[in-house]
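lol so apparently i was supposed to do this last week
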Amino acid sequence: MCGIVGYIGKDQAAPILLDGLTKLEYRGYDSAGVAVFDGEAIKMVKAKGKIDNLKSRCNNGESLKGTQGIGHTRWATHGEPSDLNAHPHMNAKETLSVVHNGIIENFLELKEKLQKRGYTFLSDTDTEVIVQLLDFYYKGDILSALVETLRRVEGSYSLGILDADDSEHIYAAKKDSPLIIGISESGNFVASDIPAILKYTDKVIILEDNEIVRLSRDSVEIFNMDLEPVDKEIMTIDWDISAAEKGGYEHFMMKEIHEQPKAIRDCISPRIKDSEIMLHELRLTEDEIKDLKKVNIIACGSAYHAGCVGKYVLEECARIPTEVFLASEFRYSDPVVDEGTLAIIISQSGETADTKAAMKEAKRLGARTFAIVNAVGSSIARESDDVMYTWAGPEIAVATTKGYTTQVCSLYLLAMYMGKIRGTLPDESYAEMLKELLLLPEKIESILSEKEHIQYIANRFSGLKDVFFIGRNIDYSAALEASLKLKEISYVHSDAYAAGELKHGTISLIEKGTLVISLATQEKLYGKIVSNMIEVRARGAFVMAVTNEDNKAIEESSDYALYIPKTHHSFTAVLSVIPCQLFAYYVAVEKGCDVDKPRNLAKSVTVE
Ligand code: G6P
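anyway here it is w/ 6-O-phosphono-alpha-D-glucopyranose bound
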């Protein structure tokens, strides 16, 4: 989604802004722009399309002089993607310039009021009302004008602001949209996300809602809405810059697929001490955990699919009734939630608008909220009662891989931890599961070492139009994610079905040459899924099975078989998804798709 970078320092601003925007490309965008104050005037360059278009319009930033500026990547919400609608936006006198992430919900009403007072609007954006309001309230003091403006806008925003009357500062503010400050010897930054500034500094301040920032070349001042100073902690980010770049792989997605063993180790190992799971993050007493009546899992996209796996494991280990909700549905339903409900909120970015809103709703209804989040300091992490970080590191490719598998592993830890406390998971099973959990990273490594085989099959099928994924039980949940991966990045139509539902409709879609990918890892259901494979094969489908390494018999009822190492039946979802991620990746590469930035998709969906 939209990205913001701002800089004030000793160096020429525009190349730094363009570099930062490039690091934010993964968020998804359709236009970009920068504005720089050169000591006399604000110079602005904007371009529809990729950042390269913008770079070529300003000679890679060289033609924009000045050491203070703001930049933006826009993902259109109000008004089509165009040069005009791209940010920054300026007032008529061109003395103020604003970049904005989020949505101003009352912009029409504000726009009409301003128009009545003679203001002319150039763009279709909601953002333009901010700069015009700033102009309206500006009486020589930008901070006061900003407070007046923010008091009148409704909705979400993170803002970067340039004032041509102030060659010593840039300004920022936020509410319900992420914003951080970066601090370095050669200048200070504002950004919507850490990778944008990581090349320049690892010292950051995470801003809270209703905070206003004044940055100079060597100082950072943060104020509340009454313009009283606020003290903030400076955090050191321990990701190195290579973590936010491709590290030798052709695509971020492939790099992140290969990072899964490490990400899972980082997620699991620190939480296991002396053969016990330590989940201090769930700040409920043992009695409170025993008294929980039910769990609601709330998420979007792949995080929802992780939740679908979680349901099986929580019910099996902790014997606690668990429902999984799409956040966009939960927030507008009338859910039965009360103090006995634990609402597990899952989000890689921690900024997904629907997930955030659904969490607020669950809280309002009295649930205890427990967030499983990757992005440290994100809104969901901060607003939830408790937070468990997945520690997957930055994920750049739009299609999540390590984000998803670490979410699933977090749910495994939680289910086992609660099962032990509730007395529903026998000690022997707990010990066995723990042993298997710790082996998952090396089992993923062994699947990754077979990737050429998967590439060979993917190339064979890269011309296909429809794929169906089938599975039963946890395999069905993994199939949902496997199918999403394929459609997201390769644009092949793909759907996942509970194998038992085939007969109720989907089988009518099977014709000669249709590919059916069957996830068949649940030993107790082998017979059932094999019957489904035989049924679709009899109607002309090619069947590719993903199964356990000891199930060679599956070759009799499939055209291709991919094997995963044997593990506990609950943990197969983390292994069976790996060959499917690779399959989706290779199909997309073979088709020449933009793997890391699939069309129309955004990494972080911060508007509804
Ligand atoms: C977008 C991403 C998906 C992600 C979903 C939920 O659609 O492309 O990969 O699963 O948002 O995002 P979250 O950050 O809340 O996990």
